[in-house]
Structures are given as structure tokens and as C-alpha cells.
Specification:
With about 190 residues, the protein is of the alpha/beta class. It folds into 2 domains: about 120 residues, Rossmann fold, CATH 3.40.50.2300; about 60 residues, no CATH class. Helix content is about 55%, strand content about 10%. It is built from 10 helices and 5 strands. Helix 3 links the parallel strand 3 and strand 4. The protein is globular, with a radius of gyration of 17 Å.
Length: about 190
């Protein structure tokens, strides 16, 4: 994919974060930034997109038609949940809903750019994966809450035994599990082989 062919849609009502994301995405490809779901729907009807960055805290009733449009017209486009300030419950809810990743306003510009590039490489998780993601994130939540550690640290601390059980019981390839966990297949292979 060349720079000129990549299209990224940003739906974010916080003007500062929206402008920051538009600047970062403009370095990757063509970016379209809007503050409301109706404007986003209008753009979805006019252009194909390679990635959607969606404010998780917009009014959910306003977003219902937006999510329907994604499912109907752009079912394989990955989307990323945007947070001004993330909290554990919201992050888990976004991941259960199929978000490829999460971004938040206080991340450095370089980190945002790398995560957006990474999200462009991820195919949207297949439907069967959502129940697995739900079970993984529930387990993740229990561990993070009980051990009082951040969600991202908990994600890296899944036991090898637990991950091997998921691979065998779900009949997944390691590359599929790596996508679900948000790590590279090589990192997962090294972790399970050590």
C-alpha cells in the first residue's frame, strides 16, 4: 500500500486530540477527521477506508448507526478505540467489541504513529475470535484487578500453560493468537518456546 492510497477516518469530538491524530495520520496516508457520527457516516458512504479511529466515549445511541454502517459497508476494516483518559472497564469493553487496538491522548506522537501503522497491518479479527477475546479479556481483568496491576502488564503475563490450552482447545494457529493478544507472532513463539 502506498502512502497516497491509505485512507484513515478519525471520529473524535475532542478538538485537540482530533487535530493531533489528523497530523499523525497525515504522515501515514490521507486522513479525514470529523467530530460527529453523522459526518463520519457521510464519509463512509463516499470513500473506502483502511482504518477507522473511533472515540469510545461518544454517545452510544449516536454511534449505533455508525457501527451498523461499518458492519454493512466496511466489514473487514480494522478500527481503533480512542480514549482521552482510558480506564480498565472501558478498555475491556472496547476490546470485546472488536477494537484492533486502543489509543489515548497522552501518548507521545511517535507512539501514536507506530500504533496506527501497526493497526493498519492487522486484519479485522474474524467473528469466531470475539468470544475468545471476551474470555481472554475477562481473565485479563480478573488478574489485573486481583493483582492491582495495569491491564497492559497483565496482558504480557498470561501463563504459557494458559496460552497453550487456548491454542489446543480453540484450534488456533500461533499467528491467530498473536493477533488476538496484540503481540507479534515471533514474540509469542519465543515466549512459548522458552
Amino acid at each position: 500500500m502506498g502512502k497516497s492510497t491509505l485512507r484513515i477516518l478519525i471520529l473524535e469530538d475532542d478538538a485537540y486530540f482530533r487535530n493531533l491524530l489528523q497530523k499523525v495520520c497525515g504522515e501515514i496516508g490521507e486522513s479525514f477527521a470529523v467530530a460527529d457520527p453523522q459526518s463520519a457516516l457521510n464519509l463512509l458512504a463516499k470513500h473506502p477506508f483502511h482504518l477507522l479511529l473511533v472515540d469510545w466515549h461518544l454517545n452510544k445511541s449516536d454511534l449505533s448507526s455508525f457501527y451498523s454502517a461499518i458492519e454493512n459497508f466496511h466489514p473487514n476494516v480494522p478500527w481503533v478505540a480512542l480514549f482521552t483518559v482510558p480506564n480498565l472497564a472501558s478498555v475491556i469493553s472496547a476490546m470485546k467489541s472488536g477494537a484492533a487496538d486502543i489509543l489515548w491522548a497522552t501518548q507521545e506522537t511517535g507512539v501514536l504513529k507506530e500504533k496506527i501503522k501497526g493497526s493498519l497491518q492487522k486484519p479485522r479479527a474474524p467473528i469466531y475470535a470475539h468470544s475468545l477475546v471476551s474470555r481472554l479479556t475477562e481473565s485479563l481483568t480478573e488478574r489485573a484487578v486481583s493483582q492491582k496491576i495495569p491491564l497492559f502488564q497483565a496482558r504480557r503475563e498470561f501463563s504459557k500453560t494458559f496460552l497453550r490450552q487456548i491454542l489446543s482447545q480453540q484450534k488456533l494457529r500461533r499467528t491467530q493468537l498473536a493477533v488476538l493478544l496484540g503481540v507479534s507472532p515471533r514474540t509469542l513463539h519465543r515466549y512459548l518456546s522458552a
